[in-house]
Amino acid sequence: MKRALVIVLCISLIYALYKFYQQTNIDPSLKKIINKGAIIIDVRTSKEYSNGHIKESINIPLGEIRERYTELDTSKTYITCCSHGLRSIRVKNLLKERGFQNVYNGGIWKELEKIINETK
C-alpha cells in the first residue's frame, strides 16, 4: 500500500512539473498572434493528424520537418502544436535555427484549438 502511494505521488509530481514546463514554454500572447493571421503547423504524424486537427492547420510531422521546412515562408508567422507540446517545442527551435523569426510554441493542439475558438 505504501509503495503504491509513493508511485502515485511520484507520477502526480512528474505530471505537475510537466504541465508547469509546458505552460512556461507557451507564449502568453498567442491570441494576439492568431488574430494577426499566424499559420498553425501541426507536427504530429499524419495518422495522428487524420484523427483530428485544427481546421486550416498544415501538417508537417517532426520526422519530416528537416526536409520540408523549405516549403515555409520565413517572413510569415507560425505556431507549432502537437499532442503533448514537446514535439512542437523541438520544431519551433529547429525553425528558429533555420532563420525563422516569428515562430511560437502553441503546445497541445486541443488547447490551442480552444484559444483559437476564443479569438473568433
TrEMBL record:
Organism (species): Aquimarina gracilis
Name under which the protein is recorded: Rhodanese-like domain-containing protein
Matches recorded under InterPro entries: GlpE_sulfurtransferase, Rhodanese-like_dom, Rhodanese-like_dom_sf
One Pfam family it belongs to: Rhodanese
Limits of the Rhodanese domain: 34-114
Family annotation (CDD domains): RHOD
PROSITE patterns recorded: RHODANESE_3
